[in-house]
Amino acid sequence: MATTHNIATGDRGRIQWLYPLSIVTAIAMVIAWFPLGTLMHQQSQLATTAQQIAVIQQEQRALANQQRTIATKAEAAMLARQLYQLVNPGQSLIQVLPGTSTLDGGGDPGYQPLVAPSSVAATPVVQAPSAPSGWRGFVSRLVRTLEFWR
Fold first, then answer.
1. How far apart are CA 56 and CA 75, in angstroms?
2. Cα–Cα distance measured from residue 120 to residue 2, given in angstroms and rounded to the nearest whole number
3. Model pTM?
4. Nearest to 20, CA basis, from 30, 10, 28, 9
5. How far is Cα 68 from Cα 78, in angstroms, rounded to an integer?
6. In a designed cystine with 86, which of 52, 80, 122, 144 is the match (CB 3.0 to 4.6 A)?
């Protein structure tokens, strides 16, 4: 049987508004449940991770090139001398440290100018105390020797 619509009751008008309303509701539900911000954040994380992977791959290529250059025994020995101060058996390592001399003669005392004897001030002569004799002399010498305990 065919359904008939009564124009007077307005059943058809109610059906016409039901379809757009259901479509708008479905779109609102998708927007509410589909987190667009999270998707964008994950996309930026993926881009950052891809960039980090590219940097690591570049470093890996550089290390592979370095490995090829030091694969020879001569290069390995040269790096061992430069980086770790290692020498071949039978050789000895001598390191010459840089000097600290300055123009004012502050480094090696051999570079300082000589002092004229007339410019030296007379220093008072201090007589050494007479050495005590007996047991008291031994104890006082022992105490002076062990002064670092104080």
1. 25
2. 136
3. 0.36
4. 28
5. 15
6. 80
The Cα 9–Cα 48 span in angstroms is 62
* Angstrom distance (rounded) from CA 147 to CA 140: 11
Residues with Cβ within 8 Å of 85's Cβ and at least 6 positions away in sequence, in order, are: 93, 95
List all residues 6 or more positions away from 131 whose beta carbon is below 8 Å from its beta carbon.
137
Tokens of 109: 């005392």
Q: Could you give phi then psi for residue 79, rounded to 5 degrees?
A: -65, -35
Tell me which DSSP letter residue 134 carries.
S
In angstroms, rounded to a whole number, what is the distance separating the alpha carbons of residues 89 and 61?
34
With beta carbons less than 8 A apart as the criterion, state whether 113 and 105 touch: yes
| Number of residues written out for the chain | 150
Q: Is the pLDDT of residue 1 over 80?
A: no
35-56, pLDDT tens digit by residue?
777 888 899 999 999 999 999 9
Are 87 and 81 spatial neighbours (Cβ–Cβ below 8 Å)? yes
